[in-house]
Amino acid sequence: MTTNTQTNQSPVAVISLTLNAAIDRTVTIPHFSVGQVNRVELSTDRAGGKGVNVAATLADLGCGVAVGGFLGEANDGIFRDLFAAKGIADHCLRLPGATRVGIKVMDPVSQETTDINFSGLVPTEADLVELQRGLLGRLRQGLRVVLAGSLPPGVDPGFYADLTVELRRLGAEVIVDTSGEPLRQILAAEILPQVLKPNVHELQEAVGRELTDPQAVAAESRGLLARGAHWVVVSMGAAGAVFTSQDESLLAVPPSVAVRSTVGAGDAMVAGIVYGRCHGLSLAATARLATALSLDRLSHLGDGISGRDTVDAFASQVRVEPW
What we know:
By secondary structure, the chain is an alpha/beta fold. Helices cover about 35% and strands about 25% of the residues. Strands 1, 2, 5, 6, 7, 10, 11, 12, 13, 14, 15 and 16 form a twelve-stranded mixed beta sheet that branches. Helix 2 links the parallel strand 5 and strand 6. Helix 4 packs across helix 5, helix 5 packs across helix 6 and helix 8 runs antiparallel to helix 9.
């Protein structure tokens, strides 16, 4: 195992943790048909994983950001290239083997996406201890830490919940975007992250009941706020996202866009939330920016944002209303 210590020219304000990174391969196949011969129109590879996607967008917005987590030694070149191009500080540990590949088959005609995911690296207990030691050693008061994505095979599902407690104890702000048992463990813990960003299906699964409309989502979010969270953001696909703080609840409704790729759309929204927290934006301003970044991600292929002018144009079309 090796550690990369590439530095960033900008002071690091955010550390984005990706334990289960991936190389995202998007394959565009018009009229994709299961069980038939399909012709690929376009194929692109991107350095991915939720925390990596969050960091790429934050870097494009001018934030000093670092990425931590695990990468495979055999195919880390695509990640090193991304970090160097965007000025992202590389704090990732290298493990023997290859980072997993996630394939998305995108049909632009039906606007449907089929996911094919490979298994990831399996860190040892010593790897996890080294990761935590390095992360906690870099903490300072007010630093924001993003815990994003799934956990690698064999990692205790309570890892994020336990790490959240330690990070908050040391004065960091914690933003979590995960699902399944790790999310259930977080919601069951006595100390919650300051910011939670599940989608509605992930939150439904975690709490064990249906959340059929924005009112139900807002009510569930207020329960989490009462237990110590500061903001809860629940995305609902084309229906928008519910942003809830101690003082207000808002529904951000996006305009319709032509979807070119769904890769990283939720992560772009997380980046917008983190940017809003870093710059003291209001909940409404954050909701507008985060939704616009998600729309930008849906509408183009590539890393980060297509351009600030495009994001601003999308933001002007987002409808934000009290809920």
